[in-house]
Structure formats: C-alpha cells, structure tokens
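Journal club prep — side note

Before the paper discussion, L.F. wants everyone to see what a predicted structure for a comparable chain looks like in token form. Sequence:
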Amino acid sequence: MLPRRWRLLLLLLRLRLAATSAVDQLTAGLLISLLTDLQGPQGGLSGSYVVNVSSWSAAAAAGYPPCGNATMPPWAGLSCDAANSIVGLQLSAQGLRGSIPAALARLTGLLAMDLALNNITGTLPAVWGGSLGGLSSASSNGSASISNSTTTNSSSSSGGSSGASGGANTAASGGISGGLRQLRLLDVSGNRLRGTLPVAWSRLASLQTGAFHSNALTGTVPDAWGSLSGLAPGRLTLGANGGLCGPLAAVLTRALALAAPLEGAAVGAAGAAAAAAAAAMAAAVNGTLLLQTCPWAESARLLQLLHSALTDRRGALASWVDGTDPCSATAPWAGVVCDPAAATVAGLDLAGLGLAGTLPSELALMGGGGPGPGQGGVLRQLLLDGNDLEGARAGPGVPRSGGVREET
C-alpha cells in the first residue's frame, strides 16, 4: 500500500483532473452553443467551412477538450496558451449569421477575436466591456469639433493583471460581468451590424486593433472611447458605416490615422508623413459622417433640454441617450414621432407617461424649423395628456401654431 502522503497526492491529482475535465466540458458546451446560434445547426454539415458545428461537436463527443491534448491540436478556429486557456477565436468568413452572443464575454482570457466577413446582424454587446459603472453615455452632441482633451487612460487599472489563464474558468463559472478586458484585437468588419458603439467598450483598455468598417453602425463615437489610448496608429477602422457621425476624441483621430511625423524630422519627410496620415484618416472615415455635424444633432439637443426639464418617475424616457439619433431605425427614442420618409422628428407623443415639470421655451424651436435639413422642422403632433406638465398652452414660446397641433 502506498504511504498516506502519496495517497493524498493522488487524490488531489484526481480531483484536479476531474475539475479540469468539468471545466473543459462546460467550455465545450458553451462554444458549441455559441457557434450553433451563429452558424445554425446545419451550418457545418456541408463541409464548406473550416470551423463548423459538426466538427466541434464530434471533437467534444470524442472527449477532446477545446484546447486539445497531447495527441490532438485545439479545435479549428481556436488558439490556446500554455495553460490551455482559449486566447484566440478566428471565425472570419465562416458563414456566421444572427446576432453576436453576449455570452462570448465569458471567455475573459481572449486576446484576439476575428468575426469578419460573415453575415452577422444585431448590435454590439455592451456587456463585452463589463459594467458601465459611472461611465456617461455617448458624446453629448453631434457637433463636428474634435475634442482636444484626453480622458484618463485606464489600461493600468483594468484587466491588466488578470492573466490569460482565467478564460476557461470564467467560461465555466458563467460570470460575464468582467468583460473582455484583455482583448487586443477585435475585427467585426464586413458584417451587417446595426446600432451604436457601446460606451462600455471604453473599458477594453488592452485593445490595440479595432476593425468596425463595412457595417451599418449609427450614432456618434462615445466620448469615453477617448480612454482607448492603446489603439495603435492606423489600427482603428470605422469607414463604410453611413450612420456614424460627429466628433472624435483626439486619441481616436491618432488611431484612425498613421503615425504622426517625428519631431525634428526633415521638412520634406514630415510633410510626406503628414500627407500620408491625412490620407489614412480620410480612408478610415470614408463612407461616414464622422468629423461632421450629425444631421439630427439639433433635434437631439432640443429634446434633451426637454428631458432635463422634466421629472421622469417611471423612466419612460430612458431611451433618450446622448449621441444617438432620436429617429434611429434600430432604437428610436420613446415618445418621439418620426417622419418615416425623412427620418426626422415630426412630433411628440408623451401621453400617459407620468411626466412632471415645466415645458421649456426651447420646445418652440422644434416647431419653427432648425438651422439645417433634418435639424428641426414643424411638429405635426404634440400629445401631452396624462402628465403633470405646465406651459403646454400658456408657457411663453411653447409652439401653438406653425403646424403644431396640441392634442389632449
């Protein structure tokens, strides 16, 4: 009989192997479920994709863990580190469709994720950035100026000390609150993604490359993204997203362009480098309205003045988020009536929302037209009954003509 010490060591080893096996099984189940959601249960049966549901399912059924073992390599499309944690997900051009699963945030050890050139729809999961905490919403307006202030870099305080080995364990535990804090490369280009860029992604402090071009993203780039100082020059692409508009933090303009000329460089070399950087910037924002005023900026500003003047006990106006289009096709603001042809604000239906307060006089500006196309116009509907409001009829400047019709 083995000595008691050796028996204890063997028992601990067996328990460790059993725990590792359980983690591998849970991780395998998570990956197969995610790929099934994206590719469909029949996606791999044709054999046309290197990464497919059937190959992963077969590997799991044979008992091969996602990161392989002494006799088998990792599953197709996965990269692992020495600790057998998943650090890379390469799923470009693999026939993926449907929405991006928020549960990918459970793979917290990921360093690289490539989902480019698929047919993925839906929105970008905010949970990948972890909790919003005290972060503000997207940029407060759609003006075209470039901010010269740089937000404090958070790379030293979030995600840097976790270590890649936590990926599989976190996947097994099911927790997704931490987000993909170690992610260095993210490529979701060439899909059909909609909606806005999540404010919470400003917490992806390790991000060095972000490819978002050739989608259908809208809104402004969140001011909080100015903290992503790890983005390398020329490694942020936002082009071919016709709904993106507005200003960019200075750190992001550097990430969009090539490296700036070195101080003290020869005049000719500096001029050539500056020209190359300008060309790179133009290419990076081509097909967007970035660095230009958002068409809906004035309407959004006036509506936010209204919002700030009211008490919203029920949170009925929670969708009125700075930096987003009130008439967005994917997430229109609650109570805002839009002209379907022009996609501009045509009225307000705030009836029965339990709002209280005094309507601001600036509401009149929405009835008299804005300074530019799509930035104001004539309100054709104003429904306010069922609230505790003042100024709707008698308040100075509140529109009662010019096309406005108050209905109660």
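L.F.'s comment for the group: The first strand starts at residue 78 and ends at 80. Keep this in mind when we get to the figures.
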